[in-house]
Amino acid sequence: QVQLVESGGGLVQSGGSLRLSCAASGTIFSINAMGWYRQAPGKQRELVATITSGGSTNYADSVKGRFTISRDNAKNMVYLQMTSLKPEDTAVYYCNADLKRLPQLPRRNYWGQGTQVTVSS
Fold first, then answer.
1. At 23, is the pLDDT very low, low, confident or very high (cuts 50, 70, 90)?
2. Exposed e or buried b per residue across 89-113, where buried means at least 16 C-beta atoms within 10 angstroms of its C-beta
3. What is the rounded distance in angstroms from the CA atom of residue 45 to the CA atom of residue 53?
4. What are phi and psi of 89, to 5 degrees?
């Protein structure tokens, strides 16, 4: 079994900052990409940022320059530092990992349960 557990969400004023963390645990052989996605009420889930095991990053245009994704490969953790938050950043933020549980198994996508981020104006 693999679990992804997010933490760090909450309520913050516009212009404020939050740091999200996600820990992957269980039987894990290797993790390729990890990332953050978000889903606002009435909208589809969208990519926020991803990071490969080598540290290459990709960001949604809406968060470039404000959010920073990072990871600790030794701890199987990924982080999202969010600054200059806007009300439109309000959403449930989900952690995602593309990983192999065992060397003989194919890679699979796993999701966390999500953490709520609310930005007040």
1. very high
2. bbbbbbbbbbbbbeeeeeeeebebe
3. 23
4. -85, -5
pLDDT at position 49 is: 98
Distance from C-alpha of 101 to C-alpha of 35, rounded to nearest angstrom: 18
Q: Kindly write down the DSSP assignment for every residue of 10-77, as one continuous string.
A: EEEETT--EEEEEEEEES-SEEEEEEEEEE-TTS--EEEEEE-TT--EEE-TTTTTTEEEEEETTTTE
Residues 100-106 have a mean pLDDT of 96
What SS3 state is found at 119?
A: strand
Rounded CA-CA distance 53/95 in Å is: 15
Q: How does the average pLDDT of the chain come out, rounded?
A: 97
